[in-house]
Write a structure and sequence with these properties.
The protein is of the alpha/beta class. It folds into three domains: about 110 residues, Cobalt-precorrin-4 Transmethylase, domain 1 (3-Layer(aba) Sandwich); about 80 residues, Rossmann fold (3-Layer(aba) Sandwich), CATH 3.40.50.11270; about 80 residues, Cobalt-precorrin-4 Transmethylase, domain 1 (3-Layer(aba) Sandwich), CATH 3.40.1010.20. It is built from eleven helices and twelve strands. Strands 10-9-11-1-12 form a five-stranded parallel β-sheet, with helices on both faces. Helix 3 links the parallel strand 4 and strand 5. The termini are far apart.
């Protein structure tokens, strides 16, 4: 039997961002320099395939520093950032701490610290419980931040000094939703101080713009990524908002709900910033097994961002 035709549109940019590449390279370089094991507090990035690959090379992932034995093995802090108490606790135990926090997250931390020094209450736009939000709020004493997620949260705000506010944002949010929240903040608090440049990272923005270009042209969308990846979840939500009648997060080809996709004749594929291209290739191959695929790449931006490794892991001059 002949295969049914399928137009498969690949979003570009997609997949790994510079911060994720730096974090993975940090673990691999630490393994080369120190040998196994190397400990990593929490998932280095939100992708099971990546984490399992690093575990196979000798990385040990732990929930908390208490799970790291005393000794010479280094402990790496994830790309999402950690509260200041974590590296402080590592230093107190004489552990070799290596910070793999994405530099764009570190930028948000520095903005918040500056606002706090200037006496402002900081409104953090983000998702409660996300590791990046926990890390950002942990840069300053309790009470320095107020977390907001929605426009409704803005409307309910009653700060003690409305003229002395600032805001920062989680880097992996929906661009459109965050724009609405910021607009509400500016309307209610005209004197509020924001970042000179948007906190939402370039990779999150670019991947969302690519989905906006592809989603109106297809019936369904596959987002390659893990369900605990904030930026991947935002891509799936955006695909639905832009008109895809079928959308799904999938880490591997075996996760695809084929009964929903087999009737379709046009599908888009993108990948969250922590998803490797090999998983995209796997999913494209799975579609080729079932369809006569016409493949088209839709490019909305070019990326050449690079972040150097943490200083202690860079090659000697």
């Amino acid at each position: 039997m002949s295969k049914p035709p399928l137009l498969l549109l690949l979003c570009a940019p997609r997949g790994f961002c510079a911060g994720v590449v730096r974090a993975i390279d940090t673990v691999e370089r630490a393994l080369e320099k120190h040998g196994a094991p190397v400990y990593v507090r929490h998932e280095i990035v939100h992708n099971k395939y990546v984490v399992d690959g690093l575990r196979a090379k000798g990385a040990i992932f732990v929930d908390e520093l208490d799970d790291v034995p005393s000794g010479a093995a280094p402990v790496i802090f994830s790309a999402h950032g950690v509260p200041k108490s974590v590296p402080d606790a590592a230093a107190a135990r004489n552990l070799v701490g290596i910070d793999a926090t994405c530099p764009l997250v570190t930028k948000v931390h520095r903005e918040a610290i500056l606002h706090h020094r200037r006496g402002r209450l900081i409104l953090l736009i983000g998702h409660k419980g996300h590791p990046e939000v926990i890390g950002t709020m942990g840069q300053l004493p309790d009470g320095a931040f107020h977390l907001i997620e929605t426009v409704a949260d803005v409307e309910a705000l009653n700060p003690p000094d409305p003229g002395n506010l600032a805001y920062v944002t989680q880097t992996t949010l929906s661009v459109d939703d965050t724009r609405d929240v910021i607009a509400a903040l500016n309307r209610r608090f005209p004197a509020i101080v924001g970042p000179q440049k948007d906190d939402i990272c370039y990779a999150t923005t670019n991947r969302q713009e690519a989905v906006k270009a592809v989603a109106p042209r297809v019936e369904g969308m596959i987002v390659v990524g893990s369900p605990n990846s904030s930026n991947s979840l935002r891509l799936r939500e955006l695909a639905e908002r832009e008109g895809c009648k079928v959308s799904q997060m999938a880490l591997r080809a075996g996760d695809i709900d084929w009964p929903r996709f087999l009737p379709l004749r046009s599908v888009g594929v993108t990948a969250g910033a922590s998803a490797p291209e090999t998983l995209v290739d796997e999913i494209v191959a799975a579609f080729r097994e079932r369809f006569d695929v016409t493949l088209e790449v839709v490019t909305t931006a070019r990326e050449n961002m690079y972040f150097p490794l943490p200083r202690e892991l860079r090659a000697d001059p």
